[in-house]
């Protein structure tokens, strides 16, 4: 973002990002000129009319009706102009073209899940084709989240019990940041993902590749992306314990007992995280992972088993 | 009864027992007790802010864990909003100054006034205890279902906020009645100091908006104990409804925070320019208009919440209707200096600084009101910077101006003017260094309420943290010389700033316990300096109380 040398706004990478920016710059420069006028007048008056004589009491100034009307009318016209312009761009941003490619986005503490029309699911990375409108149908399974891609100038809250949506059309291939921008708990700031924009051909072959069944360990690795905000696999202690090299060891629990880390322990820890809590950690792992299919759990067990 | 050096008794010296303070019905003493209470809240909130900034000096853990950080910024926000900014100007300066400026002996209901103070203290204690015990996080907005998912703490926080709100309602009621019924003979609405107009407008909002907090609290309790689905999606409720309730109170509350600042700046601009405030009627009536329009714009906080696009459009339009009178006020304040006689004392420096910082807050508010742009900027540091420019750059800077302006009246002592100017400079520079970088990183996409962040934002965070140290140094300097002035400050004259309002012209410094020994008769407007040339003819500090209150 900042590294591309754009000072105020990140590079504009969607069809309407340019329109949003034009509006931003119009308001920015108009405000700057008006601000400079106000501050300039302020400094000029401050020094020009500085009190030199303690006895001086200036006469009342006859107020100019023309001037007063001007500084009511001019800002009114300016803001109405900006309002109408902003409304126009907002309508574009709210009207997804009917032929949009649809991706279902699910937010939960603290991971993103992207399900594509072909039935493929990814975590931590959303892959979209360039030059094609993409519509996201979004919902949350726990608290509010908000989906934000600065480069596309899009943002929308995810609400439990209802769908919200947004759309965009990426203009260039590349990788851009996704943030969660509605506070959602301890690891809110770790609820990140990337959007990877690829060509139509690459997208088609990527989908085909993903549609094949993965071996359990690879499936587990892919699923693990949604655990990565809290669990490291390189020994780093995050919100939760690191998971590499734990398989087959004795794990000390918060209640003082210890337990053998085996397949059943991993399965229990995913489905019922508050039951056995590792020593030194809070029981804050969300229960949102209970909806995993047996196959997905098998994959995760296989993956964690493989971590050294 | 002890006598002060000048031989006249004053409200501080006539009875010094603790009991005489705790059970006082004197609006001036209640104002001073509020000053101490809100200053403590501000000090605590400020220290928390410094901790937040230190944590954000580098990505990842710097001095505290994620949970500790989330609780720290929440505590900072709740203390600053509910225990400091909302009561600060109305309860401290409103209480102290309002009866003095209208020529009354006290507010209309002195006992209610004391009750307000203790309700405020009780509410603040309940809210603070709930936050600390419940380890509440998520910021001052407490959006459901997150806030209800982390235990019952939110129920008690909302109770505390409601009790504080009740204090606000009673204060507002008291002020409305006082302004209507107790103005001195000759003090027509058109002669009223603009500080009173704005306190009056604020009081309307306090009375009308605050009950909504109570309603929200009752709904939260009903949901909790009777399982009626209101906000909780698991019970079939709608979490977005909570946001409507929250902002239906909290947006008008923004005007509770900013309107009194408008009043202070108007008084400072008039007095230190020795000039009529330009567009007096516009400045006065637009405060009242803003108070009412403030009820119709809450939805501009919710452009990306999932509310209908049609509502968003309407809310955006009404937001501009408020923006225009506010902008015109700024022009009026600047043009008050035109052909005036401007004296740059410490209080005036704050008024001047206010014009700078509040204008930035205002212009970025216009930016955020534009639908298409707000989608990008919503919930980023751009918003954090914007509301700090309005709340701190607007309210706090103006409140500091007011505090310096009325300090001699409150305490009978002058503060050190040189240190005052240095501190004003530190506050102004530190404030801008803290918050301006936040506009840039916000526009680049840095979300708010982030414990950890991407490395490319670190430069801006560092600048912001350094700024917070300069700002903190300025604040502690102010605390230092104000406390020192109590001990060895020069004795204040009767009217050191040469003001024309009754608080300066018709009372002693510090005021008599009953304010006025004779009912003042008002013959000119609050800023009609051209009608009072004789008062300044000697070129010396105005030292005669117009109607003698000496024994």
Protein architecture, described:
The complex is a heterodimer of chains A (308) and B (551). Chain A starts with 16 loop residues before the first helix and ends with a helix. A five-stranded mixed sheet of chain A has the order 3-2-1-5-8. Chain A has a five-stranded mixed sheet with strand order 4-10-9-6-7. Residues 1-5 of chain A have low confidence and may be disordered. In chain A, 34% of the residues lie in helices and 20% in strands. Chain A is elongated and about 90 Å long. By secondary structure, chain A is of the alpha+beta class. Chain A has three domains: 2-48 and 62-94, Helix Hairpins (Orthogonal Bundle); 101-211, Immunoglobulin-like; 216-306, Cytochrome c-like domain (Cytochrome Bc1 Complex, Chain D, domain 2, Orthogonal Bundle). Chain A contains six helices and twelve strands. Chain B has one domain: Cytochrome C Oxidase, Chain A. Chain B has a two-stranded antiparallel ribbon. Chain B has 551 residues and is mostly helical. The model of chain B is unreliable at 1-6 (pLDDT under 50). Helices cover 67% and strands 1% of the residues of chain B. Chain B contains 18 helices and two strands. The two termini of chain B are 15 Å apart. At the A-B interface, α1, α2, β7 and β9 of A face α3, α9, α11, α12 and α13 of B.
**Rg of chain A, alpha carbons:** 27 Å
**Largest interface between protein chains, with number of residues from each side:** A-B, 86 and 92 residues
**Would you identify the regions of chain B where 5 or more consecutive residues have pLDDT less than 50?**
1-6
Radius of gyration of chain B: 23 Å
Assigned CATH architecture of the largest domain in chain A: Sandwich
CATH architecture of chain B: Up-down Bundle
How many domains would you count in the coordinates of chain B? 1
Identify the strand order in the major beta sheet of chain A.
Answer: 3-2-1-5-8
**Number of separate helices of chain A:** 6
Tally of separate helices of chain B: 18
**What is the overall silhouette of chain A?**
elongated
The average pLDDT value of chain A, as a whole number, equals 89
Number of strands of chain B: 2
Distance between the termini of chain A: 35 Å
Distance N to C terminus of chain B: 15 Å
For this structure, what is the CATH class of the largest domain in chain A?
Mainly Beta
Q: Could you report the average pLDDT of chain B, rounded to the nearest whole number?
A: 91
């Amino acid at each position: 973002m900042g590294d591309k040398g754009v000072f105020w706004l990140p590079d504009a990478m969607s069809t309407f990002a340019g329109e949003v920016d034009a509006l931003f710059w119009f308001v920015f420069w108009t405000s700057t000129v008006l601000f400079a006028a106000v501050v300039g007048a302020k400094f000029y008056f401050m020094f020009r009319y500085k009190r030199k004589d303690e006895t001086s009491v200036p006469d009342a100034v006859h107020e100019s009706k023309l001037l007063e009307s001007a500084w009511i009318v001019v800002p009114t016209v300016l803001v109405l102009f900006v309002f109408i312009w902003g409304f126009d761009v907002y309508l574009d941003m709210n009207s997804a073209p009917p032929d949009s490619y649809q991706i279902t986005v699910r937010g939960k503490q603290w991971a993103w899940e992207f399900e594509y029309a072909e039935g493929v699911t990814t975590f931590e990375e959303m892959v979209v084709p360039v030059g094609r409108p993409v519509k996201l149908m979004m919902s949350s399974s726990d608290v509010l989240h908000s989906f934000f891609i600065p480069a596309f100038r899009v943002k929308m809250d995810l609400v439990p019990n209802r769908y919200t949506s947004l759309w965009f059309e990426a203009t260039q291939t590349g990788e851009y940041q996704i943030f969660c921008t509605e506070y959602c708990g301890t690891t809110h700031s770790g609820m990140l993902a990337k959007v990877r924009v690829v060509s139509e051909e690459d997208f088609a072959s990527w989908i085909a590749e993903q549609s094949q069944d993965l071996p359990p360990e690879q499936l587990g690795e892919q699923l693990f992306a949604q655990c990565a905000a809290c669990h490291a696999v390189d020994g780093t202690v995050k919100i939760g314990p690191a998971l590499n090299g734990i398989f087959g060891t004795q794990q000390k629990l918060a209640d003082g007992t210890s337990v053998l880390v085996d397949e059943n322990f991993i399965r229990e820890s995913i489905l019922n995280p508050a039951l056995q809590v590792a020593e030194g950690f809070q029981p804050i792992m969300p229960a949102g992972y209970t909806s995993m299919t047996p196959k997905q759990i098998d994959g995760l067990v296989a993956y964690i088993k493989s971590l050294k | 009864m002890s006598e002060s050096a000048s031989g006249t008794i004053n409200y501080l010296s006539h009875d010094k027992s603790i009991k005489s303070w705790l059970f006082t019905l004197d609006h001036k003493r209640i104002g001073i007790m509020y000053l101490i209470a809100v200053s403590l809240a501000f000090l605590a909130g400020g220290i928390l802010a410094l901790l937040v900034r230190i944590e954000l000096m580098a990505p990842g853990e710097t001095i505290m864990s994620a949970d500790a950080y989330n609780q720290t910024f929440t505590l900072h926000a709740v203390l600053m909003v509910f225990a400091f900014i909302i009561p600060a100007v109305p309860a401290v300066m409103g209480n102290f100054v309002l009866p003095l400026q209208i020529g009354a002996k006290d507010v209309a209901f002195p006992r209610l006034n004391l009750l307000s103070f203790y309700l405020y203290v009780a509410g603040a204690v309940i809210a603070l205890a709930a936050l600390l015990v419940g380890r509440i996080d998520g910021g001052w907005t407490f959006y459901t279902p997150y806030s209800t998912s982390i235990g019952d703490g939110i129920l008690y926080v909302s109770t505390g906020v409601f009790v504080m709100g009740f204090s606000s309602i009673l204060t507002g009621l008291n002020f409305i009645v006082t302004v209507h019924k107790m103005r001195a003979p000759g003090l027509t609405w058109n002669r009223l100091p603009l500080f009173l107009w704005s306190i009056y407008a604020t009081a309307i909002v306090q009375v009308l908006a605050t009950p909504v907090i109570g309603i929200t609290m009752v709904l939260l309790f009903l949901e909790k104990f009777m399982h009626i689905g209101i906000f909780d999606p698991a019970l079939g409720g709608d979490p977005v409804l909570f946001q409507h309730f929250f902002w239906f109170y909290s947006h008008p509350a923004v005007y509770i925070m900013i309107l009194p600042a408008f009043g202070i700046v108007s008084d400072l601009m008039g007095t230190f320019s020795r000039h009529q405030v330009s567009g007096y009627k516009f400045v006065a009536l637009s405060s009242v208009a803003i108070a009412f329009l403030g009820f119709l714009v809450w939805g501009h906080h919710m452009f990306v919440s999932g509310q209908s696009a049609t509502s968003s459009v309407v809310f955006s339009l009404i937001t501009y209707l408020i923006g225009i009178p506010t902008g015109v006020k700024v022009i009026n304040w600047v043009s008050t200096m035109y052909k005036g006689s401007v004296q740059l004392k410490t209080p005036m420096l704050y008024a001047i600084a206010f014009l700078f910082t509040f204008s930035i807050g205002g212009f970025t508010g216009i930016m955020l009101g534009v639908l298409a742009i707000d989608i990008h900027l919503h919930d980023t540091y751009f918003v954090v910077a914007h509301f700090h420019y309005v709340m701190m750059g607007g309210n706090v800077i103006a409140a500091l101006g007011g505090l310096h302006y009325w300090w001699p009246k409150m305490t009978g002592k002058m503060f050190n003017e040189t240190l005052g100017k240095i501190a004003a400079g530190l506050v102004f520079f530190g404030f801008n260094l803290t918050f301006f970088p936040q506009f840039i990183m916000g526009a680049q996409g840095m979300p708010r309420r982030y414990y950890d962040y991407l490395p490319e934002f670190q430069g801006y965070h560092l600048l912001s943290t350094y700024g917070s140290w300069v700002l903190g140094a300025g604040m502690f300097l102010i605390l230092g010389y104000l406390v020192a002035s109590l001990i060895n400050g020069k004795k204040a004259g009767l009217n050191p700033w040469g003001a024309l309002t009754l608080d300066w012209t018709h009372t002693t410094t510090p005021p008599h316990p009953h304010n006025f020994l004779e009912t003042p008769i008002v013959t000119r407007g609050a800023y009609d300096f051209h009608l009072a040339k004789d008062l300044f003819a000697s070129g010396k500090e105005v030292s005669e109380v117009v109607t003698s209150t000496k024994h």
